[in-house]
Amino acid sequence: MSSPSTVQEVADSQELTSDGKRCLSQLDRPAKFGRAAAETDDVPATIEVALLRLKTNRLIEYNQPVYIAPMAKPDLQAPDNTLFSLMDKVEGFLADDSQVMLVLGDSGAGKSTFNRHLEHALWQDYEPGGRIPLFINLPALDRPDREMVVEHLKSANFSEEQIWDLKQHRQLLLICDGYDESQLTSNLHTTNLFNRPGQWNAKLLITCRTQYLSPDYRDRFAPEATGQYHRTAYNLFQEAVIAPFSKKQIELYVEQFVLLKPRTWVKKGYMDTLTTIPNLMDLVRNPFLLTLALESLPSVVKNNTTLSNLRVTRVELYDRFVDHWLEVNKRRLQKQTLRDDKHVALEDLLADKFVHNGIIFQKELAEAIFQEQEGRPIVEYSNRRDKSSWKARFFDSEPERSLLRDASLLSRTGNQYRFIHRSVLEYFFSCYVWDASREDDEFVPHVYSEATGVSLPVTDHPLSKRSLVPEQSVIQFLAERVQMRPIFKQYLLALVELSKLDPQATIAAANAITILVRAGRHFNGADLRGIRIPGANLTGGQFDSTQLQDSDLAGVIFTKAWIRQADFTGARMDETRFGELPNLQEASEVLSCAFSPDGKSFATGLDNSNISIYDTTTWTRIRVFQGHKMGTGSLAYSTTGLQLLSGGYCGTVRLWDGETDVTDRILKGHSQKVRAVAFSPSGMQFASAGADKSVRLWDTQTGTVTFVIIHLGDVTGIAYSPDGNNITSCCLDGQVQVFDTRTGLLVLSSGTSDVGYYCLAYSPNGQLIVSGDIFGYLQLWEATTMMPRNNWRGHSRSVRNVEFSPNGQWIVSGGDDNTVKVWDGYAATLVSVFTGHTSSITSVAFSPDCSLIASGSKDRTVRLWEMNSAGFGFDVDGAFDSKRSVAYSPDGRLLISGSRAGVIQQHDAESGEIGLVIRRHEFEANSVAYSSDSRQISLGDSGGHVTLWSAHTGAHENILLGHTMDVSAVVFSPCGQWIASSDDRTVRLWDARSGTSIQVFSSDRVSPVRSLSFSSSGAEIAFGGDFGRVQVWDVTTGKFKMDKMDTIGDTFRRCFVRYLPRSLQVVSCYGSEGAHLWDEEGRHSRIILQHGRITIQHFAFSSCGQWIASVEGDTVHLWRSPLDERPQDWEYVLAVEGFTGVIGEIVWRPNKLEFATADVGGSTRVWRIVERFDKVVVQLVWGTGGSGLVASGSLLNDAIGLNTFNRNLLEQPVVDDRYLSSSDDEGLRRFQIGDYLEKLQRF
Predict the structure, then answer these.
(1) What confidence score (pLDDT) does residue 585 get?
(2) Longest Cα–Cα distance in the chain
(3) Burial class (CB in 10 A: 0-12, 13-18, 19+), 774
(4) Cα 539 → chain centroid
């Protein structure tokens, strides 16, 4: 992997000759060499002579000053431990029968660099008669989808006779670069008829940016099966994703970079700077950005003595690099001998700020490329043909334009011009949209918005010219500009506000709010009444309690947006998209579901034994099948769709007529519940599996059992191979076994393990089997050998159901953690997470066309998720990273969260803006805490470490070693003197300054500890452990003050402890026993919070002591203490829902009525309590991380154009009868706490 040529090399390549003519750069040479060779050929060249000429030219043209061999991974979100050499992967592709290999990568990942290096290596090894490597720049071709090879060879001066000869007799490797830049959507292998009789014999290696992909992107690249053009041959397709640079690769790159020319910095200086500036190492893992950074670092750090305080973003690197590039080229031009007219032009440019004019030139060129040719990056210019076109403004021979063009970030091949990288084009276009240098330009026409007090240009502004929603990279550049320039944020907000009054601001406002949402701007509680933003992309946006009455929201994308309690009254909502369809509400738990093969019907099996049949065009229930005596735990349609098979917990199997509610057969044989059923692909046989440890194979026509296959444990899942020759079963005894359906004999077995399996499925091509187990892991197996492949933790609890998509691209899984997850079917890596169910997922199913995923749950609903909302084209890395802990700094200004992936994020507590990011990928971040002075962060991780970091710089300061297991809790004492930490066996007390271990409490005195809390003075510390154990240790005396274990109730739940604010009394909670208040001596306790329908798992006191927030699963319950100074009852106020998973921790913000939550769904959210007219309202302040659509309480009165599906989706009730609202019976909501309140009031 390497960058494009560095600044100096490119500048050197543009030196002029003694007569003032510009020397050919490397990129200028191909066409000229080709013409020169052609002109000297007097006779037609033989094929090998022509190929030798091509080889020679290509080897001469190759110029890679720095090259680092890239690593790759199987998929976009694959972890780093799946990396492999990309070159090795390509060599394997060249050696096997595959026909197409797709190489993906982010912008700047080094795709083109690798392609050129690959071509160079293959030409070096080329021997006559061998496979011919052709590097094809797709954007340079007029019709790459039809005559790709012919057009390319003609440009290389091959004759028609030579081309025909090559087509008939030779093999090609087509290295197709820039699929995304050519804006193609067709399948090049199919449209060019490759590898068909009489056509080109070719392998294709195609590179494409990941941002260009759509959900069905593999269909654009995979070849069609021979003789079956309607069927995709995925077995002839391979894929790889170029991985970001590792630290070692960065070091190797820097080492080569410093040797290119004399520099004032050495390798150590670059590396020290890269590692010291916060988060810069993560940014420069992109090779192109690394190049920019290395060129720009000297100017970035100039006059900055404290590098740890610097913050560098991608757009800042481009800013610095562009300035540096133009400065270097300005000096080059000043040294050259120029013609008189160019010399005068240069003097004028120098007098008028050369760099500034260079930026304007490139910015306007980028705008013209987007405006005139829809962003197609290559501009062909002929002075004779185009002198009257828009192109002449940039490419004619006028001296000033010629100088600016030569100094710009442009490359030239013959008469074709392009920016040196696609991202440079997008960067300059974003600069055109809003150039920071124009913020104070007094000559820009302005319009004043009274609502915001901001003066802003609107007439003919680029934000008004076109929708930028499809240009995700441009949106990202502008979003970063928002974070850098507050005035830009105000300008965009003013545009949104202006759209209320001025219809001409509609497009600009839609672009503006799209940029703001991408930049993380929250609109919770905002007054957006009457805004006009049709077509805006508000994916993941936060609009809690937002006023959107009478707004134009036509075509707006609200996928996974937070629109709880938003008011859409009178809003125009034609074609508004939300990423899912309305839930199907059932009368009891949904145990199973299935689509018919034609997708027109959908069936659900219920715990009350019924089967509901839905028409999928309207999603209305059209029939109900009744017959089973107990729950219907499994369903399967026949391949014709005419029959439906069901398995009942009563032990019977029923075969139904798919068009009526008539039972064709009732089949008995299982002695216990039937857990799974399946039809063979031919429809002549079906199978059932049960808790009686048997699999039964039945003849469809006669209803007789042909084989009974006995297992050692409960059989939980079965699946037929696509050819129907095998049936595979999984059991709770830890075995996956393959049997021959014609003989009933065992064919293959995975062997026994300690893991019980719940479910399995075959890939459509029959090559893979995926299984899900009781611990939340998914396993891919080679179907022909049962050799294990990928194994990964997919869910935090058991995987209940798993399916391959019909096209084989995805795997969907559902688990007891209430989430539905989509995985790449090849690499087994996360694509998206769907949240919203409030109970276990029991079943999942793809629609036949792969457009929908259905998930059934014990919460009595089926949710229907649109696959086009599954996160394609967006960075999902970390978006659903389970959050384990959250903590406020004592001054309340900062908030940190720790995740399962070992990432600590520090937020501004008011705005949610992310500042510091600390990555510890090798360990899970179980617990985080701030020191009493807010200067240090402590982290307890899964490796048994307690690590201390600077809260200001993120610098590592100390590591406390001694724990041998996961550190489950860590806390600083309020006095700042101590740190306490715990694992399953010990509690340790450390000196906060030196890190010295002061005291250790081992397992003979301490049950497994899950919770720690210091008293307000720091003199005592309370432990909460398993089995209801509560212990208090006096730090000053070194003795236990209290050691209690309550054996009443649910004793196996974890105990959570907290001190009352400004008190020596401990409150503990565990199981369903509510919260217990202990006296100061620790002798007696009594229940202070209890609700017959609420389990208090843990809780937190507000700093004022008047509020308690308790957690039950994915819900927060709020309790309030009246202020009267007399014994009162605590009052249950309300429940806060909408979380993306079980809540891991809850904390109150010091001196504010705000609390923060972290949940396993990957979100960190901050909530504010607002009291209005004797009514308590909880509003979302801000949130980050994974989310599903949350629309509870939204108002849709008189919404215009909202289709029935979307209206039903937004209005559907939350099905959850576990909780009581604030209007429930008063007798259940109030609890006497007596003298506890008196003590609280005294404090």
Answers:
(1) 92
(2) 111
(3) middle
(4) 12
